[in-house]
Amino acid sequence: MSVTMQEFLRTIFPEKDYFTSNNNWRYCPLKKLDPDEPMYYAICAVNDTSRKNENFKSLNVIMCDDVGTKAEIPSLSPSYIIESSPNNFQYGYILSEPEPSIDKAKTLINHLVKSGYSDPGANGVVRLARLPGGINGKKDKPHKDFRVRLVLWEPTTTYSYSELLAYFKPKQKSSESFSDEDILFGIPDKVYEGGSKDSPGRDTTMTKICGRLIAKGVSLEAVLAKMIGYNEAICVPPLPISDITRIVQSVNSIHQRNQAERYGHILENIYHIKETNTWYDFSDDSEVTGQALDTAYAVEFPGGNNKPKKITKFLSEHPEAKRVVNRTWLPMPYQTEARVIHDGKRSLLNTWRGFAIEPSPGSVQPWLDLLAHVIPEEDYREALLWWMAYTMQHPDKKISWQPIIIGTQGAGKDALFEPLAKILGKAYRMGGNDSLVDGYDDDLYETKLLHISEAYGLSGKAIDHYKRITATEASDMQTLNIKSKAKVMQRNICSVVVISNNIDAMKFDREERRAFVLRAPEKLTEEQKSAYYEGWLHLGGSAHLFHYLLNYDLSKFTPTTRPYRTTHFDALLDITMSDSDIKMEELLSEFEAALPSLIIDHIGIDDRYNNLNKRVKAYLEGNGWVRWDSTAKMKDPKIRKSGEPKPESRDWYVKKGGKFDGCKARDMYDEAQRVRDIFAKKSKI
After folding, report:
1. CATH says 5-167 is which class?
2. Is 272 helix (H, G, I), strand (E, B) or coil?
3. Cα 619 from Cα 195, distance rounded (Å)
4. What DSSP string describes 184-250?
5. What b/e string do you get for 273-302 counting C-beta neighbours within 10 Å, with b at 16 or more?
6. CB neighbours of 333 closer than 8 A, spacing ≥ 6?
7. At a CB cut-off of 8 Å and minimum separation 6, what does 586 contact?
């Protein structure tokens, strides 16, 4: 901070009654301030050139010394903070009006050193403090050349004498801070077995004493030690140690129950997360730091002497406070609550808050009519109903296949899923092509059902991403790659539905088995839309569908068995390309320059285009293609007599184990023409 030593001193001592010292403790005037020497200032103003009590004029500032090493960090905002040595600080509090009474000044300093917020040795009203801008100067290496620096400068933050006196109260550290007279007030000098009419017995008396100790905030270990001493002093004969232990445990249990009743909502809703050292508050679904939690509950838990502890300290010490290792998100079946789940030995906080609405019996016929309109085939419709019902009944599990619905715009495809969005609330997320193209998993984070709308032309890497997020063979826990965040661990339970008006929405290969492709053939009429929206959905239809799906019979449904391939999937394949075609397209799309003289015949590669050659060859060899064995093939008389071009052997590539393994020349030529057309199309030849 750009505050000079002179500016610092003039702020604290506006009347210029300031004195500094060099390392030899000789006072020097302001003009001799030396940044290459250890520099000090006195916390008081004096009326002479020596720092003595008899020269005291006023207390201008108090200073908490060795904060962070020997003293606690005050919660009271300081006027300034000085780092006097590495990770060791001095907190300064400027008095709004300097205190001229040395006796009152001594009282305040005495309170300060007994409060725990300063090194107990830092007493005296004319003591020195480090002046920022000089060096530390101690002989050991870390301190010798350390530059004393100002890390916080808020000189307008000042306090009255009474405010500082009220805050810096002597701290009661243990049971020894309470006098025996206080604890034993009203207790007979001796109590006897059985007691009498006027004097309670030993058990009653010791229980009363124990209650007073615990109410004072004395630790359980200190209570037991005190109780053993009191037992020997006043009980005739003394109770067995086992009885004293029983009394302490019993009184403490009652005390804890009373606290639980008073602070039950806090103990129930706030969890400490160990690995992030944060706190999760279910009352407002927020994850915050300890400091933020203390601020939020400062009225009920202000901290300070003779006041309730700060909430983080209260929870850290309370045996019934909730603690977990980390957090996760796992939706649970309806009316099943599990705030903590276990992954092996790790306890994880589950932030799933349940379904967004409550189920309600009622008619779902308008929704079933829409379902029949969108999916006219009865067997396909039944499969989709199973998928939806299982998703609602078992949100913590995943089905091995996912629906894709393509068809006419305005057919009601998206409308079919609107009630599910209302049921799942935040756990239902809408996405588009970007959900599969950008490579991130943001749309999966705390999502049970991902609805990808208006998909088009998805191929290659997008299809690979789709396969990854719909896979059930993957580990139960998956790592999500969240944009601008750390990676998150979450159960692999997200279902995916893809909706599109485009017949070529997704380009699969023939081996795909998890995509259940459906087709909506006709648009909704205005009457159908009105009956669905105004006549049902807007009148609580989502709650009725929730009830219907929760009670739908799944006895014939096996979620791990993939459905048969639909006729619509075959139609989708017929107008799209194979995986190898898609990869070839992606490869070729990377080359923007035209390829006017590239020789493609028979999948030949001209060595004149070395850049392209290397990449195309790498693609071919990486996808199962091998060089043509010219020794065997080119000697075939059928090929020689065909009259077709006979390229160099190094230019021939054959798909090993595929349809061109042992193919005829005409087959090979046809394939070459097909690949040539792809090149021509992509390079605009």
Report:
1. alpha beta
2. strand
3. 97
4. TTT--S-EETT--SSS--HHHHHHHHHHHHHHTT--HHHHHHHHHHHHHHHEESPPPHHHHHHHHHH
5. beeeebbbbbeeeebbebeebbebbeeebe
6. 393, 394, 395, 396
7. 459, 460, 461
Residue showing tokens 């300890």: 290
Q: What is the pTM of this model?
A: 0.51
The residue ranges of every structural domain in the chain are 5-167, 175-262, 264-350, 365-574, 579-683
The model's pLDDT over 390-449, given as tens digits with 9 standing for 90+, comes to 999 999 998 989 999 988 888 999 999 999 999 999 999 998 877 777 767 888 888 999
Q: Which two tokens stand for residue 391?
A: 């998703």
pLDDT in tens, 165-185: 878 876 644 333 456 666 777
Q: What is the CATH superfamily name and number for domain 365-574?
A: P-loop containing nucleotide triphosphate hydrolases (3.40.50.300)
Place of tokens 């005739």: 236
Distance CA 572, CA 227 (A): 83
Query: Rounded to an integer, what distance in angstroms lies between the CA atom of residue 512 and that of residue 565?
Result: 9
DSSP alpha helix (H) spans, 235-334: 241-262, 264-269, 290-296, 311-317
Contact assessment for residue 339 and residue 281, using Cβ atoms and an 8 Å cutoff: no
Q: What is the pLDDT of residues 33-64, one digit of tens each?
A: 778 888 888 888 887 667 788 888 889 999 99
Write out 140-179 in H/E/C secondary structure: CHHHHCCECEEEEECCCCEECHHHHHHHCCCCCCCHHHCC
pLDDT of residue 29: 53
CB 9 within 8 A of CB 41: yes
Task: Kindly calculate the radius of gyration of the chain based on its CA atoms and give it in whole angstroms.
Answer: 40
Do the domains 5-167 and 365-574 sit in the same CATH topology, yes or no? no
**How far is the C-alpha of 72 from the C-alpha of 119, rounded, in Å?**
9
Over 70: is that where the pLDDT of 628 sits? no
DSSP string for 365-398: HHHHHHHHHH---HHHHHHHHHHHHHHHH-TTS-
CA pair distance 309, 266, nearest whole angstrom: 14
Structural contact between residues 331 and 352, judged by C-beta atoms closer than 8 angstroms:
yes
Q: In the structure, what pLDDT confidence band is assigned to residue 602 with cuts at 50, 70 and 90?
A: very low
Tell me how far apart the alpha carbons of residues 506 and 342 are, in angstroms, rounded to a whole number: 38
Share of the chain above pLDDT 90, in %: 24
